[in-house]
Amino acid sequence: MTTVANQHPPLGLILAGGLARRMGGGDKARIMIGGRTILDRVLATMTPQCTRLVINANGDPARFGDTCLPVVADSVPDFAGPLAGILAGLDWAAAQAPDIADIVSVPGDCPFLPSDLVARLAAARVQAKTPLACARSGDWRHPVVGLWPVALREDLRHALLVEGLHKIEMWTARHGAAIADWPTEPVDPFLNVNTPGDVAAAERVAARERSAPA
């Protein structure tokens, strides 16, 4: 098993390949929250924690050209879900950054990600002596917010393509996944924007951030 502590910081993978059906389509990462897009917020939080970043998205990659980041599409067809995006990130890391042992994945629709995400995922993994780690806030697990060893990519490929397995926690349970906990107050750091109501809730959080004393 590898740990972030004795390896290069992980590759950061921003999962932006969803269909955003509940928002009427489009890229949720481009939704404005508190005067900034969610993607801008994610990049600002994750850049200091990672060796480099890539975006997982399907369709025309040019729509993310302003980020100057690599855009990696799913290799598994038919929008197979977040595990397909994670596999795409693992494959990119293996081919383009072979000195990186892990990737950390985050959704592209979470505007308030924690600045200690990587450190706490890595610490949880070391303590539990498991190869994987994911985040939890309150009673809710967030399996797409996780630390993934590149060494498991072929096992994941087999699960997706041969077994047709698409549920993250069914696959992670095979290997063992540590849990890193965050409180939900004053804000759930994994609040994700799926609906117009979520946009309104996120705007209220951003307004409180702006009004908080420095």
Structure report:
Helices cover 32% and strands 21% of the residues. The chain has 214 residues and is of the alpha/beta class. A hairpin with a 2-residue loop joins strand 7 and strand 8. Helix 2 runs antiparallel to helix 4. Mean pLDDT is 91; it is low at 1-6 and 20-24.
* Number of domain modules: 1
Average of pLDDT: 91
Shape field: globular
Write down the CATH topology: Spore Coat Polysaccharide Biosynthesis Protein SpsA, Chain A
Query: What's the helix-strand series?
Result: EEEHEEHEHEEHHEH
C-alpha end-to-end distance:
41 Å
Main sheet makeup:
7 strands, mixed
CATH architecture: Alpha-Beta Complex
The CATH superfamily is Spore Coat Polysaccharide Biosynthesis Protein SpsA, Chain A
In the sheet with the most strands, the strands line up as 5-4-1-6-8-7-9
Which parts are unreliable, with pLDDT below 50 for 5 consecutive residues or more? 1-6, 20-24
Q: What is the strand tally?
A: 9
Radius of gyration: 16 Å
Q: In CATH, what is the class?
A: Alpha Beta
Describe how the helices and strands are arranged.
Blueprint: E1 11-15, E2 32-33, E3 36-37, H1 38-46, E4 52-56, E5 71-72, H2 82-96, E6 102-107, H3 117-128, E7 132-137, E8 140-149, H4 153-161, H5 168-175, E9 177-182, H6 196-211
Helix pairs in contact: 2-4
Brief descriptors of the model:
single chain; 214 residues; alpha/beta; Spore Coat Polysaccharide Biosynthesis Protein SpsA, Chain A; 7-stranded mixed sheet; two-stranded antiparallel ribbon
